[in-house]
Predict the 3D structure of the following.
Amino acid sequence: MDTGYFRIEGLDREYLQDPRVKIVEPGGEVFFVLDGGEVVGCCAVIKHSAQTYELCKMAVARDAQGRGLANLLMDAVIDFAREHNAERIFLLSNTKLEPALRLYGKYGFRTTGLGPSPDYERADIELELELD
């Protein structure tokens, strides 16, 4: 499957085939932005430990971009992690996704690693946000 930027990989399929079991039940959450009953944005936060959560699967429909919806998703993820006493949120991305990297930087995420990821072929950058 082609998403416009990258193909869906094995770990994506694992999470997306059963998000309740793979994301929500272990302590994470899936967030959606609706516009007139239609999903126009989504993302997930996965619990890795009591202190560490991962932001992943963020997407906003092309025709809905530029309306601040990614900010709503980022706020929801950060609020969720803080409410669950997380100390950090990390994410994997790609250096080609300049608008996404600017968004993460705006929220205080800092680069913690560059280079190939063992989890995703498409990922070549890891970022982290330390929470208060």
The beta strands are 29-35, 38-47, 52-60, 88-93, 110-114, 125-130. The helical segments are 10-17, 19-24, 69-83, 98-106. The mean pLDDT is 87.
